[in-house]
Amino acid sequence: MNTRSVNTLSIDAGRLLGRLQELGRIGHDEQGRLARVAATDADKAGRDRLVGWMKEAGLEIAVDRIGNVFGIWAGAADPRPVMVGSHIDTVVNAGIYDGTYGVLAGLAVIETLQAAGFVPRRPIVVVAFTNEEGARYAPDMMGSLVYAGGLGVEEALATVGTDGSVLGEELARIGYAGDREPGFLKPHAYVELHIEQGPILEQVGLPIGAVETLQGISWQRVTIKGTANHAGTTPMSMRRDAGQAAARVMTFLRDHVTRSHAQSVATVGCLRLEPDVINVIPSRATFTVDLRDPDESRLRDAEAALARFLDELSVEEQVRISVERLARFEPVLFDEALVERIEEAASRRGLPSRRMTSGAGHDAQMIARIAPSAMIFVPSHQGISHNPREHTEPQDLAAGADVLLDVVMQLCAAP
Ligand code: HGY
Ligand code: MN
Ligand code: MN
Fold it and tell me: What domain count does the chain have?
């Protein structure tokens, strides 16, 4: 089998869709929300199901020390594998496609090539990286960051979660504290297929995005300490209200990014007030700030503007403010030759595509540190993601997987 017949093959779309639905039913919480949060029992259940499918495909299973799971189709001449994959951990109240689609489509690519008698020049590996979402342990994209050498594995394993758990203990508890050293496979290339999670492809009516860049990400946790006092007897002028101060930060962020540039975004996703009682002025506010921008200097400006605002705020509101950095990743440029392969593969199948920047963080941005990497996007209905209403049309899911198939075949056939 060689590349001439590269686009006569197609993945088994029915099996891919069935597995997406099946995995989407694994890991719901007591409120019925999909929550395969990293290193929880729900995550274990999803991992176990994925490993089962990998074994059925006859792949060698490897797990590294940060819990990244690899399905390896070994045996080729050249030792450096073509790597595909993404993550299967989710946020809370997640959709069923974010991450999971890239892992299951990667597995489908291997199964399709095996069934077609394709003999790859290189091993092909499908990977599910640990803790891409960062919902329990910061930073996000942690498993791929450790794999790429951007974070020490011991430091990562010692990370304390939002629930007080320790990642290394949890990975051991769920049976995924592996023995391979992160980075044990040096990819020839890494291609990640993912839903766009934004509105662009659907708005412009295109089935494929060739992702060439990924924006910068800044995560911080802010703690504001004021004074608890009586909600009824304390005059407004005498309050040291941590809740009011937090509210001013939230509106400052929105005003700052909307004033500065259409592409900048700011989110306060977590907010906790203490003592959280209706008639007590909050003594403490703890919240997270997620700032993102495709432009590194603009992102730095936003961080600096926030820091200045917090200094002024602490004086005006007579509160004490402390900030903890949780994650900081500069914008990433993907491999130009790989992006062109994605565009060409789509075009050969009659699928129009456009170049894009990813608004979301992805494992590809970390693996880009150690190997040529790029991403393929498919449309998200109404741009919705991190939400059970996340949806991509079956024909778009199949088309994206076929483009991945063709790119992988090209990479495995070329010297
Ligand atoms: O935060 C992100 O963009 C990704 O979903 N972890
Ligand atoms: Mn994702
Ligand atoms: Mn996500």
Answer: 2
* β-sheet bridge partners, residue 71: 61, 126
Are 178 and 146 in contact, with CB atoms under 8 Å apart? no
Same domain for 263 and 304?
yes
Determine the distance separating the centroid of ligand 2 and the alpha carbon of 236, expressed in angstroms: 44
If you take atom 1 of ligand 1, which residue's CA is the nearest one? 361
Tell whether 14 and 72 lie within a shared domain.
yes
User: What's the farthest any 2 CA atoms get from each other in the chain?
Assistant: 81
Question: What is the mean pLDDT of the segment spanning 39-54?
Answer: 98
Structural domain boundaries, residue 200 = 3-214+331-413
Residues 207 and 349 in one domain: yes
What was the pLDDT predicted at 75? 73
Mean pLDDT of 22-28: 98
- The reply to whether 46 and 181 lie within a common domain is yes
Do residues 190 and 272 share a domain? no
Q: Do residues 62 and 200 share a domain?
A: yes
Tens of pLDDT, residues 165-197: 999 999 999 999 999 999 999 999 999 999 999
Token pair belonging to 204: 């412009």
Proximal ligand: closest to the CA of 87: 2
Please state, in angstroms and rounded to a whole number, the distance separating the CA atoms of residues 144 and 129: 6
Strands (E), 283-370: 284-293, 320-329, 332-333, 353-358
- The answer to whether residue 138 scores a pLDDT higher than 50 is yes
